[in-house]
Amino acid sequence: MTRIFRNHFLVLMVLSIGLSQCGPVKNQQEYAGYLFAYFTGNGPGEEQVRYALSTDGFNYYALNSNDEVLDSRDISTRGGVRDPHILRGEDGWFYMVITDLYVPEMGWENTAMIMLKSKDLIEWSHSIIDIPTVFPETFGDVRRVWAPQTIYDPQAKKYMLYWSMLQPGGRDIIYYAYANEDFTGLESVPKQLLFKEGACIDGDIVNKDGKYYFFFKNEDDGAKGIMLAISDKINEGYEVQEGFVDQTDQAVEGSGTFKLINSDKYILMYDMYTSGKYQFCETTDLKNFTVIDADINMNFHPRHGSVVAITRQEMNRLLSKWGKVDGLTHGSENPAVKKNNVNIQETLITLPVLPGTDLSSFDPQLKVFGEVKISPAGAQNFTNGPVTYTYQIGNQKATVDVQVQVEGNPVLNGYYADPEIIYSERENKYYLYPTSDGFLWWGGKYFEVFESSDLINWTNKGTIIDLTKDVTWADRNAWAPCAIEKKVGDSYKYYYYFTAAQKIGVAVADDPWGPFVDSGAPLIDFRPSGVNGGQEIDPDVFEDPQTGKTYLYWGNGYMAGVELNEDMISIKKNTLKVLEPDRTFREGTEVFFKDGKYYFMWSEDDTRSPNYKVRYAMSDSPLGDFEIPRWNVVIEKEPLKGIYGTGHNSAVYSKANDQWYIVYHRFTRPKGIKMGGAAGYHREVCIDELNFNEDGTIRRTTPTINGLVD
What we know:
Strand order of the largest sheet: 20-3-2-1-21
Radius of gyration: 28 Å
Number of domains: 3
CATH superfamily of the largest domain: Glycosyl hydrolase domain, family 43
Structural class: mainly beta
Number of strands: 47
Low-confidence stretches: 1-23
CATH topology of the largest domain: Tachylectin-2, Chain A
């Protein structure tokens, strides 16, 4: 059949059943799946309403390629909306309420929420409710209006909105008011709904067996988390229960609860907003909860949203409007596939696989939306190019090409950054020590090490330091390590320098894979004299082959160097020097020696920037001064290949190949460039050749997809 493009793909795949629903759904057996409404972050373009679908409540697939389904500029005061909550009404309509807030311009202060109404979940009418304008006498000084939700009050036969507000000198309090008949405004002055000492936000009410279960975020300092209050009445009498219902020590907000179709089980979900994750828990009594994260799959990263059950007609209507191949396909189950790098487009799916994978008999094991069937099944021959697959829903069919190709970069599966590489003379192998990435605001707490004999195939040797268990002086921000092998008599010692809580520590081991034992105190926890800004991060260790002396370098915003004592865990402070590269220096110092010259590399710009790059200088001394070539960029982005954010590198020489290599991180490809600032903590490690001109200057390295794989 002919190729089908863009939205026409799913227009043809809609089942031959009616697309309108004229009344409320009374029987759960009519439901066929779930709609998840959410937003994605605090940056430009992220505060928009997005949709995802699920047929089972566990596996979710973003519609419209995870782009917005409502334009915030059309419905809000400043261009941003958050915390979407959708309610299926008693009258067959859908009601949505959202926070009217655009953080890039407004910070965390706002005064309005938005009420929306729809018959089909696609076209929405809306009204902006600016609280100080509507209620000037009682709430004219409100500073924020957050996370509204709606529930139907069967006694009043009205829709009740509830949300939190903050007034100067007060605390966040959850209020309620009833909507007017056409859901365009509030007919009553807001009243306090939850009475509790301390601030409370993000309310979510569930009616079960005649009782109302009120989940909310407690904002008291030192006791933050999701709590529960219970009442026999929808708008009063809530008694706060003891303890927290969230099942994590991470910061959480934005809880949402929904009942699984034709089941006695409920799902409690909440936004782990500092971790970049959502957590799902299962319960039958709304009091005791079990984490089920291992059962949850999403091809997107939501923030504070809500889930509502929908019918097959409604699901197909949404698919016909916003369904795309990249929403139907959720990667691959085959372990040879580099899952973070799968590239799903409208007419072509590219599966990058590990070196050594047999392409002549490869089963893509595509993960697809629950109702989709695909063929052919089983292993196929991909050596001659793409294989055409048929997607089918009901009697409707469409095709997409799938290609499988070996890619050498990234060299590690998963999110890692700031790679440090050494060659072990004792083991005759390479060891790679990266930052564990994928954590919001670089919140990792542990380090791993990888081993290779060829720089292509790497084995994870496990965690070598966990800040929460192995370090007494810091428990956060495990960043940018470096390592060195030192021969001591007839044996070897391994010294590992790492960043934790913006300080630099050192740990020692007898093997390159550890276990490493922390020295017990930070080695660098001070700012050099004369330096007024920056951070004490990003160490690099270097042994001068001409003198046998060992040096430590570090700094963000400045570059410092100092000689280490022979014990390798203390410094000769009188040798400390603030070095002076050019103004492009940001962080990530890397030092090595070649043919009588000391090479200093560093990263320019912010690691969240697509323009993050590596520059270098040369010197006759391990502590400067610098000779900076006119053209001193070592590696930078390659947009035609979809490669961005290439920086924070190390370098290694291979005697076997008589070749230098640069090890660096980049944004995850291909998704990173669309992530905005979040790309800066979704990075991956790559290796390419590092070459030199006859005069010793460095040739610019072009970052590649294949890496060292032919």
